[in-house]
Amino acid sequence: MGKILCILYSGGEAAEQEPRLLGTIENQLGLTDWLKEAGHEFVVSDDKEGPDSEFQKHIVDAEILITTPFHPGYLTRDLIEKAKNLKICITAGVGSDHIDLNAAVEKGIEVLEVSGSNVVSVAEHVVMSILLLVRNFVPAHEMIERGDWQVSQVARNAFDLEGKVVGTIGAGRIGYRVLQRLKPFDCKELLYYDYAALPEKAAQEVGCRRVADLKDFVSQCDVVAVNCPLHEGTKGLVNAELLKHFKKGAWLVNTARGAICDKDAVAAALKSGQINGYAGDVWNVQPAPKDHAWRTMKNPLGGGNGMVPHYSGTTLDAQARYAAGAKEILENYLHDKPQNPANVIVGKKGYETKAYGQRTMSLLTPSESIAFNGFLSAVDFGDVLEWSAIADNVPLPAARGKEALAKATKDLMSLETNYNTPDIDNSHRLKSPATANTQWPSFPPNSEPRRPQQQHYTYGFGSGRPPSRQFYHSTPESLLNGGSSPQGHQQSHNAFNKPRSQSPSTIGSYNPLAPPPFAFLSAPDNQSQGPSRLDFPSSITSPTIIKRNSSSNSKRSLPADGDGAGPSGVFGQTTTAIGNHTASPVTVPRLQNPVVNIYKIKGYTCLIFFIVHDPYKRANHIQSEQKRRANIRRGYEALCDVVPALKEAIRQEEESARAAEDDKGRKRRRRGKAASQPEEGDKFDGRAGPKSENVVLQKTIDHLHTLLVERDSLKSRLIRARTALVPGHPALSISSDHLDERGTPLWEREWNGGTGWNDNDDDADDE
Ligand SMILES: NC(=O)C1=CN([C@@H]2O[C@H](COP(=O)(O)OP(=O)(O)OC[C@H]3O[C@@H](n4cnc5c(N)ncnc54)[C@H](O)[C@@H]3O)[C@@H](O)[C@H]2O)C=CC1
């Protein structure tokens, strides 16, 4: 029977007196009798550092390793290489970052932890730490121990938690429980930053809001709690740069892992007062050296330190749970029974959790990874190549990469407002599927196109007559897009010629959402008359704004609910909503505060008056929303350029959304309703969505570029390394499986954007 090696901390006298201290070498997780009876060799030790330690001595032939995050036996890649018999690592507790997980994946070593066993214990500790920092508890207690009594000394830096913004980085089991426990404190807002969104219901229950950008997130928080695992993506996450974005005087609590926060940057930020406090129980090295800066660091008022040894997740209650959980995992392993999936970090085929980093997108295809890894392991590179540089290149089926991209896109777009203009943003939906993929997507795919409530506008300066030909009606957007592009032109044209009273079925043919600014085209000097609409230059790409004059009244406010045809502060009188422009009365606006943009277009000076009254304000707002959405579309365009697979995945989503929509339309018609009739409660809403969307997009694009650059650099380093080998070196022989049809090694091919070089090849690897 294989050897079981168990690394725990020494409990000393306390463990002898308290048998419930199960996570100690004295009480051995309560496993000793059971394992010995079954005839297993069970080695328990706290001696874990250095090549002569019990840990390093026994790991070479151990089959099972049991460790605890409270006294971590660091299982590095080197040790994994030496551990030829190792099959499974069990973490008695939560957090397996002390194991090189990527190396474990490569070697097919399973890693399991007792998920959930101490999450309540930690969540309670987090809330306590937040309170003790915000209320300045530690200096107050120290004052009492010293025999002093000077209330003002501690009250000067004591606050209430009520009314503060608290956020968690990571909203998993612990992070969510922290939010739950904070709810009764009536914080101003509860926020979270996590690449996995909480289920809507869970978020609603605690009333928390997700912030997609980390800097944006920390800049909104009075208190930041770190509750994500340590992995390549979180190591040093809270560093000097991020700390600059914290609110001055914010509090930071970290019970996740010490290395997520940069030791020196935190100490400096506390010293300078950039943060007012730091509390936690986790350290970048454990046990922490006596001179570790976090032991004694203070804010400028001599407080703000809530550090304790790593014990938040090892209360006696927690120890009972993780000891029982470790035994269960061991039992399952020994009796070949299935494991609880929630406990599996690395399974037989690789990562089974996303909590330790999003690894679904691989830089290399599976066959490339195999070839690459095979090559690297056959060559002693020394420091020519660092493994950490390819840490993300975990072989995973290409198909999962595509799904992940499509999902990521949907997630991004789920930040969208639920507003779509029927004839602009959904224009591609009106086209045939064959042409649909030339348009950029508007997710969420299942959202219905929104029909606006009927809008009423006045056209012309109150004459009630159709504008003369000197007045060219267009939206600024259509001007920017070329003015006479088929769509823009059509809209403008229709806007003039359609009767104002639009039946729902004709709403889509003009754009009531883009209110007409009034544009006056002056003739160029050599022309006596301005151009007619038909003469309007057709090849304008982007007008030059030569002067912009906007008054304070042009400030956009949120549109009120309802149709917006109410009294206008700018007009001073009620503008009557009109059903037919030739017959209805129109109030002449007092143009004391118009917004005037002057464009120079192909030699014509074009004055565009934006007249701001309620419907216009509302429509103005909608225009800004349209621009925002256009930006998003441009972002997607760029993103899809980099990742063709994403474009394809989105196209498929769009198609099925369109099919679902058609189906819905048919059903509605069968029920006797007009197809374009708005659904009950399908209210028009032009409010702008989160500003962070573009930032997220940009970051995604940047990230992809970085990945590609990294891949190229790896490739060239690999090629260089290969040329350094003597001919005939085993690492130079490449199995024919790893050559493409032209005989090129798979890793030397151009990246194809995740679409799969050769489906058959990748599929075979995916099996
Ligand atoms: N101090 C202590 O005694 C203990 C500390 N811990 C630490 O707390 C961590 C979290 O534990 P659980 O909540 O149970 O884990 P979990 O797996 O339930 O949740 C982790 C969450 O962090 C998120 N996450 C991962 N990387 C992220 C990133 N780069 N940015 C934002 N979010 C990210 C994941 O998506 C997930 O929602 C553990 O990994 C461990 O390091 C856990 C137990 C005890």
From TrEMBL:
Catalytic reaction list = formate + NAD(+) = CO2 + NADH
Q: Where in the cell is it found?
A: Cytoplasm
Chain positions recorded as substrate binding sites: V94, N118
Q: Is Cytoplasm given among the entry's keywords? A: yes
Bias-annotated ranges (Basic and acidic residues): 653-665, 680-690
Q: Where is this region: Disordered?
A: 419-587, 653-691, 747-767
Q: Where is the composition biased (Low complexity)?
A: 545-557
Family annotation (PANTHER family) = FORMATE DEHYDROGENASE 1
Function, in words: Catalyzes the NAD(+)-dependent oxidation of formate to carbon dioxide. Formate oxidation is the final step in the methanol oxidation pathway in methylotrophic microorganisms. Has a role in the detoxification of exogenous formate in non-methylotrophic organisms.
The UniProt family comment states: Belongs to the D-isomer specific 2-hydroxyacid dehydrogenase family. FDH subfamily.
What name does this protein carry? Formate dehydrogenase
Which organism does this sequence originate in? Hermanssonia centrifuga
